[in-house]
Design goal:
- Helix content is about 35%, strand content about 5%.
- About 45% of the residues are buried.
- A hairpin with a 4-residue loop joins strand 5 and strand 6.
- The strands form four sheets. The protein has a three-stranded antiparallel β-sheet. A two-stranded antiparallel sheet has the order 1-2. Strands 3-4 form a two-stranded antiparallel sheet.
- Helix 22 crosses helix 23.
- The chain has 24 helices and nine strands.
- It has about 750 residues and is mostly helical.
Length: about 750
């Protein structure tokens, strides 16, 4: 009995604060141990090298309480947007006693909430950002940089409660910051609804390898003196920060060094120098930092707080712990004289004073003016008769000392209207970058202008004779492999994380995609030289023609396997031009490996199968869809360079289930070679029958993937295999068709 109690985590927790009467009289743990959730371990933690498929479970819809039939776009049509905006404006100055607003205005707090939601975006893999409402969940809801944003979201709850499912948390969080700026005097550039909520943490998004919050930056740089050596796909300088350390690199003040890290971080978040200065200054034109107390005594973060906190965290035990006594970042003070007003005060404050290094009451390094007139100081958040020194962070000082940032800052200072316009556009980009093409935008405030970072694509023709075009492609002499691989390579760039890439636009024929190694440029050029004249002759887009060719190849492979199937096709794709394409921003979309085509650009620290999972998750596919697509593409013969690895069939070009049949056949043995390839040998004779890579073998070695493989290997599964492959193929080809969804 005693051992049961000591080893049970439920009893360990109860002993810390529960009454004795709450324990069962028998002394045994009432929880069946197979269901324990507080041990912080998973069923596979015993085997740390096991391939973890959790990243693919992010697409699981079973956690969505709204049901699979819920259509957010349809709900948005019922939303009274003007009434919502009116309520949001009223909320800005409706200071609530439980968490009072600084100077009676919540603008600064809501802007920080919106900013930190959108600002976690990084261009390298498109993850992070505000398009899912992920700030509601761990780890973001408990990041050190997000202290007190739990209060901001709770202040929004009455409005979310009122409008219900007609407004997502993701939209509401971003809207709050935009309304805050409007309420304080900025003419914003626009706003779009359309962000759909997720319902569980994105636990497999990689935020860094550090084991503690705010670990020294050195851990994520090859050389801290060279910001470009920051580990990909990361963008923030430390675990738990959105951008850079406000006290300086590793907490050491050096504005010029900080400027170099700002430039790299903002570039990884898709911002140029002018946008970076505008955002830094515009974000610090309003609101304040909070460090009027001891940050070390704050209570647990929301994810670790007691149930009585009801999802809130960072409780300040020093009364009242709110208002002027609030502690969050540890820095203390406002940047401008009028922190609830949009003006040019940031630049005037920065350039009209000399600055000295001081420590805040919480012990954080910051900058304060050497001398300043009393009337230029911001007033106290509670008592307007009291004034305090303004402050600047090391990042703010970087805008003054870095030559490029300084020149831009002075330009903004001399032309407030230009600064306001540049900031408004940069804020719109910050908060909409991961919403995808304008086909996903909704609402009366959507700007009409097409912006290059939205990856614009003109509408394509849709009323044409699809069968006639397919007949021309069929007579072109292209092989099944050429048709399927070109369509796949065009579509596989799609990233559900920020809804970029995909087959629509046919950017595979433009720089930089046409020259990517993974697209086999010479082979691609040959195929395009055949398909482009067909598109021109038919009066349709190259994008549609490429997908049609891929579909035709799949249909031919089905027919070779004995199945007469027409692959569903939705016409109407358009062709982007080079002028519509920000080539530099497409560089991060380049595939460095593609398990579906059994290819890696080079050997990486990360295993090939893990790279395949990452690609699969970005494409929006599930583990079963990945399985059926890999098995089908192997037998069709789509391997990079036409290698035979994993082509476990004697009928290449036919969409059979042979890959799975031979993968699970115990008449074979699997033997590694010196070059990383595996030989599949006849068990009785030792003769090499096939060769394979790790990306092939994983479907037989991983217990979950093997379970899927066995389904498709069964004698009664050939028809199911073909049907499932076609369905998954269409999903990939249509992933970016937001114009018809």
């Amino acid at each position: 009995m005693e051992n049961d109690k000591l080893n049970c985590p439920h009893h360990q927790q109860a002993d810390k604060g529960s009454s004795a009467s709450s324990a069962p009289s028998s002394g045994k743990c009432p929880i069946m141990h197979g269901g324990i959730t507080s041990t912080k371990t998973s069923v596979t933690s015993w085997w740390p090298n096991t391939l973890n498929l959790d990243i693919l479970h992010q697409h699981d819809t079973k956690t969505n309480p709204l049901g699979q039939d819920f259509d957010y776009q349809e709900e948005l049509k019922k939303l009274d947007i003007e009434a919502l905006k009116k309520d949001m404006h009223a909320l800005m100055t409706d200071s609530q006693d439980w968490w009072p607003a600084d100077w009676g205005h919540y603008g600064g707090l809501f802007i920080r909430m919106s900013w930190h939601s959108a600002g976690s975006y990084r261009i390298s893999d498109g993850r992070g950002g505000g398009n899912t409402g992920n700030q509601r969940f761990a780890p973001l809801n408990s990041w050190p940089d997000n202290v007190s944003l739990d209060k901001a979201r709770r202040l929004l709850w009455p409005i979310k409660k009122k409008y219900g499912n007609k407004i997502s948390w993701a939209d509401l969080i971003i809207l709050a910051g935009t309304i805050a700026y409007e309420n304080m005097g900025l003419k914003t550039y626009g706003f779009s609804f359309g962000r759909e909520d997720i319902w569980h943490p994105e636990i497999d998004t990689y935020w860094g390898a550090e084991k503690e919050w705010l670990a020294p930056s050195d851990e994520r740089y090859g050389n801290l003196e060279d910001p470009s050596t920051m580990e990909n796909p990361l963008a923030a300088v430390q675990m738990g920060l959105i951008y850079v350390n406000p006290e300086g690199v590793n907490g050491k003040q050096d504005p010029l060094k900080t400027a170099a890290h700002i430039r790299e971080t903002f570039a990884r978040m898709a911002m140029d120098d002018e946008e970076t200065v505008a955002l830094t200054a515009g974000g610090h034109t309003v609101g304040k930092t909070h460090g009027n107390g001891d940050a070390s005594i704050l209570g647990p973060v929301p994810e670790a707080a007691d149930v009585t906190e009801q999802g809130l965290g960072w409780t300040n035990p020093v009364k009242p712990g709110i208002g002027r006594h609030t502690v969050s970042s540890g820095l203390e003070g406002a940047w401008t004289t009028h922190p609830t007003k949009w003006d040019n005060g940031f630049f005037e404050m920065l350039f009209n004073h000399e600055w000295k290094s001081v420590k805040s009451p919480a012990g954080a390094w910051q900058w304060e003016p050497v001398s300043i007139k009393e009337e230029d100081k911001p007033v106290d958040v509670e008592d307007p008769s009291i004034r305090h020194n303004p402050m600047m962070t090391d990042a703010d000082m970087a805008m003054k000392v870095d030559p490029i940032y300084r020149e831009i800052s002075l330009k903004f200072m001399k032309d407030p209207a230009y600064f306001s316009e540049t900031f408004a556009r940069a804020w719109f980009k910050l908060t909409h970058r991961d919403l995808g093409p304008k086909a996903n935008y909704f609402g009366p405030d959507v700007p009409q202008e097409d912006l290059i970072w939205q990856d614009p694509i003109p509408a394509g023709k849709s009323d044409y004779d699809v069968a006639a075009v397919k007949a021309k492609i069929a007579a072109s002499g292209l092989t099944i492999s050429q048709m399927v691989t070109t369509a796949w390579d065009s579509a596989r760039t799609y990233r559900g994380s920020d809804k970029r890439g995909g087959a629509n636009g046919a950017r595979i024929r433009l720089a930089p995609q046409k020259d990517w190694v993974g697209n086999e440029p010479a082979k691609l050029a040959h195929v395009l030289s055949i398909l482009e004249p067909i598109a021109a002759e038919s009066g349709i887009s190259v994008a549609d023609t490429i997908v049609l060719a891929g579909n035709l190849g799949v249909e031919k492979a089905c027919k070779a396997a004995g199945y007469d199937i027409t692959v569903p096709f939705t016409p109407g794709r358009g062709d982007a031009t080079a002028e519509m394409t920000d080539a530099e921003s497409f560089d991060p979309l380049e595939p460095l490996a593609d398990g579906y085509r059994n290819w890696s650009k080079k050997d990486y620290v990360v295993s090939p199968e893990e790279l395949m999972l990452d690609r699969t998750q970005l494409m929006g596919l599930t583990a079963p869809e990945m399985t059926v697509l890999v098995g089908g593409m192997r037998v069709i013969g789509t391997n990079y360079g036409n290698t035979a690895h994993g082509v476990l069939t004697d009928k290449v070009g036919a969409l059979t289930n042979d890959f799975f049949v031979n993968l699970t056949d115990m008449n074979f043995t699997w033997k590694p070679t010196d070059n990383g390839i595996y030989n599949i040998c006849d068990r009785s004779t030792g003769t090499v029958k096939y060769t394979a890579t790790r990306m092939d073998l994983i479907f037989g070695s991983n217990s979950i993937l093997r379970a899927y493989a066995e389904v498709y290997a069964q004698d009664d599964s050939q028809e199911k295999f073909v049907a499932d492959f076609v369905k998954a193929w269409v999903k990939v080809m249509d992933a970016d068709r937001f114009d018809v969804k």
